[in-house]
Design goal:
Layout (H helix, E strand, L loop, with lengths): L20 H26 L3 H13 L4 H6 L5
């Protein structure tokens, strides 16, 4: 491996090994913020009258942007 820089074994095959620690930290913070927003949204939906809650939950199930939230909340049958 002349001319190549060897990588530690733990990062071989890892997509994150190409990013700086600052980028990884920023991504972690965005994921935390997203989870917090999802938690607050879940609480707000729980307070809605039942008919509205059904409509919102149905939208989450059919939304391409929010399937992870819907799955996390147990909305999938």
């Amino acid at each position: 491996m002349e001319g190549e820089m060897a990588r530690p074994f733990s990062t071989v095959g890892s997509a994150d090994c190409r990013h700086s620690p600052e980028v990884l930290l920023e991504r972690r913070e965005r994921r935390r913020a997203f989870r917090k927003a999802a938690s607050l949204t879940r609480e707000a939906i729980a307070e809605l009258p039942e008919l509205y809650r059904i409509v919102v939950e149905d939208h989450l199930l059919n939304s391409r942007a929010l399937p992870a939230i819907a799955a996390d909340w147990g909305l999938f049958p």
